[in-house]
Design brief:
Elements (H helix, E strand, L loop, with lengths): L15 E10 L3 H12 L4 E5 L15 E3 L13 H11 L4 E3 L6 E5 L1 H14 L3 E4 L2 E8 L2 E9 L2 E12 L5 H5 L4 E2 L7 E2 L1 E5 L6 H8 L3 H4 L9 E4 L6 E5 L11 H25 L8 E5 L4 E2 L4 E2 L7 H5 L7 E5 L3 E5 L2 E5 L4 E6 L4 E5 L11 E4 L11 E3 L8 H7 L2 H21 L8 H10 L6
Parallel strand pairs: 1-2, 1-9, 2-6, 9-24
Antiparallel strand pairs: 3-5, 4-5, 7-8, 8-9, 10-17, 11-16, 12-14, 12-15, 13-14, 18-23, 19-20, 20-21, 21-22
Helix pairs in contact: 1-10, 5-7, 10-11
């Protein structure tokens, strides 16, 4: 860029508004779980969240389903910890539905109630919350992060901590600190969700066929499969409507994000208008009653860490010496041409944009394979990091591996592991890469985060 395309700011002093042992950037369930684990091990913790509520994709983006916590055969539970603790809290408020049989999803929850429970558990553990705040810069000292610079309604402020976890999804602290990131050539698509009234008894697939002749008129993608509805526990008359996938969107780009929000809302309204046009005149008129605050984002950037988890390792169910999380969700790759699902039992599904499903096998030796895959601690340690870990979708994984580990029940575990690792490092006054993988695994097992 030429010089005239910039402005110059004067140097300024930034007030330190808080000091603590651990600062977590990103208040998703992953980020909150990291904070809670560290707090339970005696650390003072702060969480910085850009939204007005905690929970990230599960709440602000209204992606209200957590997937299976069991092994491939459904015989042993392999995911526990704070995921199940929050599910038990939601049960007390009649805000969660258990899906049986478990196909991929196991729990469907009320996103608003989950946000409330995450806030409650944070307050119970004296975690300092900074809501509607963004990490915009960082200060380094002798190779360590010395402060995270945030901006919120009070202005530009600094949080000084001994250790940091970037659970922001897009790597805001990671990049501000000068650490390396990667961006896949083909990003998985984004969605926008909306709460809708008047569709509880609507057969989505049936009416999708009836409205296809209206797609061009309403500017709706003709090669898109029918939108799908999820129930919304505690509100039996409402459905969570998952909008069409928007491809080619870099959700870490502010302008692209804005355009996707606008287009997502337009497509939802177009869908409801088409539905109104084909429904019988004597049925309730469907109506959008609330928008998700954020896009449902599958992928933006990844940290470059000490180990990149590969699809080959994942599908071979490699068990690492420093395994800190485990799961069974299939390799799930979304693209402009459709979706590919590869299950650990050897099955493969290819779902075209038109909804046609083709079944095959990617291997034929399912009986001799393990029942779950694992994620190593090294995939959370950025190269050259001394006091910074990542958690959530920033973990280092190739496209195939990330297609499986990206779901929330898996990423929740990375938060618990990162928070526990920081506690161990803090007590030993050590760098994050000096934490013993074996000791970390034992601590996670002791606290119920790691069940196997």
């Amino acid at each position: 860029m030429i010089e005239s395309e910039y402005i110059k700011e004067s140097p300024r002093k930034v007030p330190i508004c808080h000091e603590c042992d651990l600062c977590v950037i990103g208040g998703s369930a992953t980020g909150v779980f990291a904070a809670v684990r560290a707090a339970r091990l005696g650390l003072s913790v702060a969480v910085v969240e850009r939204s007005s509520l905690l929970g990230g994709m599960a709440t602000a983006a209204q992606v209200n389903e957590w997937h299976s916590t069991w092994d491939v055969l459904g015989e042993r539970r392999i995911i526990g910890g704070l995921t199940l603790e929050l599910i038990e809290r939601l049960k007390l408020r009649s805000a969660v539905e258990e899906l049986r049989p478990i196909l991929r999803g196991e729990f469907r929850f009320n996103s608003a109630e989950l946000a409330g429970e995450l806030e409650t558990i944070a307050v119970e553990h004296s975690i300092r919350l900074f809501l509607l705040a963004r990490c915009v810069s960082a200060k380094l000292d002798d190779g360590k992060l010395d402060a995270a610079i945030i901006e919120d309604a009070s202005g530009r402020r600094a949080i000084r901590a001994r250790y940091y976890i970037d659970a922001s999804g897009d790597g805001s602290l990671l990049q501000a600190g000068g650490f390396s990131v990667s961006r896949p050539e083909h990003l998985q698509p984004v969605n926008l969700q909306a709460l809708v009234a008047g569709v509880a008894d609507v057969d989505a697939k049936k009416y999708w066929e009836a409205m296809k002749h209206l797609l061009t008129k309403y500017g709706y993608p003709s090669d898109n499969s029918a939108p799908w509805y999820f129930t919304y526990p505690g509100a039996p008359d409402l459905r969570n409507l998952f909008g069409t996938r928007l491809n080619g969107i870099d959700a870490a780009d502010a302008d692209a994000y804005t355009a996707a929000l606008i287009e997502g809302r337009r497509l939802h309204r177009a869908y409801i208008d088409m539905l109104r046009a084909v429904l019988p005149p004597d049925v309730e008129i469907p109506s959008i009653v609330a928008w998700a605050q954020m896009l449902g984002v599958r992928q933006t950037r990844h940290a470059i860490c000490q180990h990149r988890l590969s699809g080959q390792e994942l599908l071979a169910c490699t068990h690492f010496s420093d395994s800190i999380a485990q799961g069974t969700y299939p390799v799930d790759i979304h693209s402009s041409s459709g979706t590919i699902l590869r299950y650990l039992d050897g099955r493969e599904e290819r779902i075209s944009r038109s909804g046609k499903v083709t079944h095959a096998f990617w291997h034929h030796d399912a009986e001799n394979r393990n029942r779950y895959y694992t994620i190593p601690y090294r995939s959370l340690i950025p190269v050259n990091s001394r006091n910074l870990l990542v958690a959530g979708r920033l973990l280092d994984a190739d496209q195939d591996a990330f297609g499986a580990v990206r779901v929330m029940v898996n990423l929740n575990q990375t938060g618990e592991a990162a928070g526990t690792a920081v506690a161990l490092a803090c007590k030993a006054d050590a760098d994050v890469d000096e934490v013993s993988g074996e000791q970390l695994k034992e601590m996670l097992k002791l606290n119920g985060s790691l069940l196997m």
